[in-house]
Amino acid sequence: MGQLGYLLPALVFFGVFFLTGKDFLKATASIMLVVTLQVAYEKFRKGIVEKKLFLTWVALLVFGSATLLFRDPIFLQWKVTIINWLFACILLGNQLLKRPPILKSFMKIASPDGLPKIPEKAWIDMTSFWAFAFFSIGLANLYFMFYTSLATWVNFKLFGVLAMMFVFALLNAFYLSKFVFSETGKQE
C-alpha cells in the first residue's frame, strides 16, 4: 500500500471531524469504514493483507467500537499510543531474539531492485531508532490526549504524527546516506 493509502484514513477522519462540527463519533465510524474497505481491497487484490494494516485495522475495530459504544473518544485516542508502542515492542523484541532485522525485510520488499550493502550494525541501529520513534509518537499522543482539547488532539493526530514520522524518516535517511554514498564511491 502506498503512502496515500496510509494517509487516506487519517484525512477522511480529519475531514469528517471538522465538516460535521467536530463530531468524533461520525469521524470514528468513517475511519473504521475506510480502513475496513482498505483491508478488503488488499485481501481481494493481493490475496493477503499487510501485517501493519491488519494490526491497525484490528485495533481500530476494537477501540473504534468501544468509542462508538461508550460514546467516549478516549478509546480511539488510546489506539495511537498502543499501536505505536506495539510496533516499537515488535522491533525491539525481534532484535532481542537475534532475528534478522525486520526493517531489512521491509526495505527489500520496497526496493525490488536490491539494497545497497548496509552493515548489519546499521540495521540494528535503525531498528533501535525506529523503535524509539514509535515510542516517542505514542508518548506525544498521551500528552495531547490528556492535556489538550479534542480538536487539538485531532490536529496532532494528522499533522503532528505526520511531522514526527517525516522528521524520523529524514534523520534515518541522513544516517543511511553515509552507507549508500560510501557504497557508490567504492564502485567507481
Can you offer a commentary on this structure?
The chain has 188 residues and is mainly α. It folds into two domains: 1-71; 73-180, no CATH class. The protein has helices at residues 3-19, 24-46, 51-70, 74-96, 102-110, 120-147, 150-187. Helix 3 packs antiparallel against helix 4 (74-96). The model has no long low-confidence stretch (mean pLDDT 89).
Give the arrangement of secondary structure elements:
Layout: H1 3-19, H2 24-46, H3 51-70, H4 74-96, H5 102-110, H6 120-147, H7 150-187
Brief synopsis:
The chain has 7 helices and no strands. By secondary structure, the chain is mainly α. It starts with a helix and ends with a helix.
Number of helices: 7
What portion of residues is helical?
over 70%
Total E-strand runs:
0
Task: State Rg.
Answer: 18 Å
Which properties best describe this structure?
188 residues; 0% strand; 84% helix; mainly alpha; 2 domains; single chain; 7 helices
